[in-house]
Design goal:
With 307 residues, the chain is an alpha/beta fold. It has helices at 15-24, 39-56, 65-75, 79-82, 121-133, 136-141, 148-160, 164-186, 197-204, 243-259, 278-287, 301-306, and strands spanning 96-100, 105-108, 190-195, 217-223, 228-236, 264-270, 291-292.
């Protein structure tokens, strides 16, 4: 293990002790309050359809609501495009709807919500079927909602939770970048984020061969004096799963691939998810020279690698 001497001040004398330290110092969370909802994104999405949503307010509580809906669509065709969002549908692939449960036949229904499609009598019937069977008719008629804009704002908040996984990844990158930036400034090194082959070639004229098409490393640092390039990958796993075993194996292979090019790989990973995949991680830890977590990166690992 190349960097064992880095941990002498922690009284870690061998690889097992370093790995045990790694596992007992995993962070339970790196979640800031901004993790939960991106309100700016939610507001932007609502602003794009706010006019059409306000027009739909006309239908709330109407008795002849089906007739009112069709008349509203005839007068304002763009209303059709916002109807799926009332059911929290944004992906067009979700609009393949089963129309016969005995034979399990289904039909792609995107045309119902395309304002450019001519509103034939058949499409009117299908729109009303959608309105009834989806439960929206009852929702409007019984005044379960007071304002469609506010209702859709809530839907957008709910749908935005799907982006949390990406946000925690960005938070991890932000934490590591703060460390890298300060380290690079202190030691006259250069770094780039989202380091692709082309970025590395353009900035430093180094031909890095990638193991994957469009491989994008989170960071790359260059010590020009020693002509030493190091790439850094970061991730945080709050939960476990079978994916973690494959992930550990992938970084083991990536380490070998880059080592042949005289390029160091630092893998900074953390999170309680690793407690469910300790064995595959320990195998990668024994193989990779620089597998660290947020606690270990504080102990001058970058200095030991690059200087």
């Amino acid at each position: 293990m190349k960097y064992l001497k880095t941990y002498e001040k922690l009284n870690l004398k061998n690889e097992k002790e370093v790995f045990d330290y790694f596992m007992t110092h995993l962070k339970e969370s790196i979640t800031p309050w901004t993790y939960f909802v991106d309100f700016e994104k939610v507001k932007k999405n609502i602003h794009l359809i706010e006019k059409e949503l306000n027009l739909l307010n006309i239908l709330i509580g109407k008795n002849n609501i089906e007739t009112e809906l069709i008349n509203l669509i005839i007068e304002y065709p763009k209303i059709r495009k916002v109807l799926p969002i009332l059911l929290a549908i944004r992906n067009k692939k979700e609009l393949i709807i089963v129309n016969n449960f005995e034979e399990l036949t289904s039909t792609e229904q995107n045309k119902l919500f395309n304002p450019n499609e001519i509103l034939t009598e058949e499409l009117k019937k299908e729109l009303l079927r959608f309105f009834r069977e989806s439960g929206l008719k009852r929702l409007f008629q019984d005044k379960n909602i007071k304002n469609i804009v506010d209702y859709c704002f809530g839907i957008e908040v709910g749908m935005d939770t799907n982006a949390r996984k990406n946000r925690i990844g960005k938070t991890m990158e932000q934490i590591i970048e703060n460390i890298i930036k300060q380290f690079s400034e202190d030691h006259q090194l250069e770094y780039i984020s989202q380091a692709t082959q082309s970025k590395i070639k353009t900035k430093w004229n180094i031909d890095l061969i990638s193991d994957k098409t469009n491989r994008n490393f989170d960071f790359a640092i260059l010590n020009k004096a020693k002509n030493k390039l190091c790439v850094i990958e970061t991730n945080f796993y709050g939960g476990g799963g079978s994916k973690l075993k494959a992930t550990a194996g992938e970084y083991k292979s990536l380490h070998d691939f880059l080592s042949k090019q005289n390029i160091e790989l630092i893998w900074v990973t953390d999170g309680p998810g690793w407690k469910t995949a300790e064995k595959p991680l320990s195998e990668t830890f024994a193989h990779n020279d620089y597998l660290i977590n947020l606690e270990l990166i504080k102990n001058e690992v970058l200095k030991n690698i690059l200087l």
